[in-house]
Amino acid sequence: MKLCIAPIILASALFAQPPAAPDTLDAAKLKTALDRANRTLQDWPNLNRYRADNEKIAPPAPGEERVVFMGDSITDGWGRRYGNFFPGKPYINRGISGQTTPQMLIRFRPDVIALKPKAVVILAGTNDIAGNTGPSTLEMIEDSLASMTELAQLHGIKVVLSSVMPTCDYIQNQSDRRPNSKIIELNKWIKDYAAQHNAIYLDYFTAMLDDQGALKKELTYDGLHPNDAGYELIMPLAQKAVDQALR
Predict the structure, then answer these.
(1) Residue 13's pLDDT is what?
(2) What is the pLDDT, as a whole number, of residue 33?
């Protein structure tokens, strides 16, 4: 009888234990997410990100060929996390991680026009496709890109419109939110629009593609963002496009 009762007593004792305390790591993650959401609500286009830096930038010197790079995390991380960002060139990085084209459009005046560049290189659209700020059609992305182009040209700024880069699933799944088929469709519009509106089309997509139609594994650390090798590949492509724009 004692042998039969022992397991029952043990089981009762286990079930009587108080519930585990909340995972502190999960709580920290939740707080971080809530803080980020609160900041986004207060400053959706993140105008504050570069406000102080912009105030410190002097007007271009005579003959200076200043260029602003407007974009998302791929631009934001260029020279800050991976790669070199045009050493010795008067180029300004105005990328913000996670952003979509309507956010960039709102901050286009303080982060591009007010800096009085000769040219702007715009790389945007992948986060719109992924739905970072809600569902977005290709037409909505195209409208924002067109508006940024018109604003720049109205102020005498040459425009370089970059293709959206391909994605791959070799390291982690990226194509479910950013399918290359949709990227190809958007890139076709960007190329056609650039040709029709006196802008330069910068084709990153083709140079970064492997024989399976995906982003080359050796050019990325996560299937979406370039690594050192990726930035090394695209920097001369960007420079060539800038040179063409400034002729």
Answers:
(1) 42
(2) 78
How many angstroms separate the CA atoms of 187 and 191, rounded? 6
Q: Identify the segments of the chain with pLDDT beneath 70.
A: 1-24
Predicted confidence at residue 172, as pLDDT, reads: 96
Handedness of CA 132, 165, 51, 138 (dihedral sign): negative
pTM value is: 0.86
All structural domains of the chain, each given as residue ranges with its CATH number in brackets, are: 64-246 (3.40.50.1110)
